[in-house]
Recover the amino acids of this structure.
């Protein structure tokens, strides 16, 4: 027996107007300093009348438990009825964990697993408003947190931390810088590829992944060349959420296992980190999911579609200026070799290994790492 889990999704122009239909009295806003300066939280607040706000705007790019823990104790007597995350994956993932800790201060972070009932759903409203076009966190029940001491990323999950509402308003990504758009689109693409091919794939995850790839490849060029085209950016928002729903209802794979390890060790952007491994992982998995790769390739738009999925991916990643080898990140061969063993060990610890459609061993990871380390 399987379950398909999703928040209620509100999308398209003026989606923020939906907030006006909700009764909110005490609201926790979770965001970061950059977005606060850009005024996006203020834009959200304009749609909420007569509420008292407690704003947390110090979420870093790679949040750790200590960063999140410092905000989990709210002012005395402030009992929120709503928590709203406004940001990218780091902000939304942090808000998921804050939501959990506010509701269950008696539990430690490692209690956040699919196996342990938390009994928190329905006791406080949780809304996610993404400001990037890639992480899919607004639609998933996973949260990634950095363990800086051990240079790794922890993958936590519980169906009880999925947002109640996800609001995809294109105004929230209208000024998204090109580099960030390219990196997060790379993340969305990887989510779709791995959600469709996971060993736990299902008809829902496959269908959403196929449409996500189609929307990405039909709209990304227009979104980058015409900043005023909110329709193209809206389609990228929707594709990111579809990718999030796909992998959240199946599982991530080897590209994410390697990308999480690489990104945490070398402090590189998540989207480009997982994208770095996408082509060699497709090579590795090709015999196991060849038929699905063929269907995914047909989902590419004519401009990017080539004879094989690997070639189509290469074409799109080149357009997105995605790094293809470690030197594109400014990492030297010596630096890479010095952390090679850590990269292998941390990759093997990831849940992405479990979801990969082909069994993965240490020697397999060594071969893939060698390809991007040239």
């Amino acid at each position: 027996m399987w379950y398909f889990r999703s928040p209620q999704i509100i999308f398209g122009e003026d989606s923020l107007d939906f907030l006006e239909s909700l009764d909110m009295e005490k609201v926790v806003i979770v965001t970061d300093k950059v977005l606060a300066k850009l005024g996006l939280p203020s834009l959200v607040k304009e749609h909420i009348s007569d509420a008292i706000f407690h704003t947390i705007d110090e979420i870093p790019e790679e949040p750790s438990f200590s960063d999140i823990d410092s905000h989990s104790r709210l002012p005395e007597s402030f009992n929120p009825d709503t928590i709203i995350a406004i940001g990218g994956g780091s902000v939304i993932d942090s808000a998921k964990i804050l939501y959990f800790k506010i509701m269950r201060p008696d539990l430690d972070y490692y209690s956040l697993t699919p196996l342990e009932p938390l009994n928190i759903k329905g006791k406080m409203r949780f809304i996610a408003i993404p400001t990037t076009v890639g992480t899919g966190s607004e639609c998933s029940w996973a949260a990634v947190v950095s363990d800086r001491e051990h240079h790794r990323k922890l993958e936590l999950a519980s169906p009880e931390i999925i947002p109640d509402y996800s609001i995809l308003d294109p105004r929230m990504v209208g000024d998204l810088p090109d580099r960030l758009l390219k990196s997060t689109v790379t993340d969305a693409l990887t989510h779709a590829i791995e959600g469709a091919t996971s060993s736990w794939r299902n008809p829902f995850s496959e269908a959403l992944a196929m449409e996500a790839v189609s929307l990405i490849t039909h709209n990304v060029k227009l979104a980058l060349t015409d900043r005023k085209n909110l329709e193209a950016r809206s389609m990228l928002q929707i594709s990111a959420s579809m990718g999030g729903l796909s992998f959240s209802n199946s599982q991530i794979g080897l590209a994410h296992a390697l990308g999480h390890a690489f990104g945490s060790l070398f402090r590189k952007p998540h989207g480009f980190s997982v994208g770095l491994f996408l082509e060699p992982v497709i090579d590795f998995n090709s015999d196991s999911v060849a038929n699905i790769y063929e269907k995914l390739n047909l989902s590419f738009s004519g401009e990017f579609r080539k004879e094989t999925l690997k070639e189509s991916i290469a074409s799109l990643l080149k357009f997105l200026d995605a790094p293809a080898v470690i030197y594109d990140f400014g990492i030297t061969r010596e630096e890479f070799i010095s952390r090679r063993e850590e990269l292998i060990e941390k990759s093997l610890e990831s849940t992405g290994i479990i979801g990969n459609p082909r069994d993965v061993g240490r020697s397999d990871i060594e071969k893939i790492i060698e390809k991007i380390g040239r």
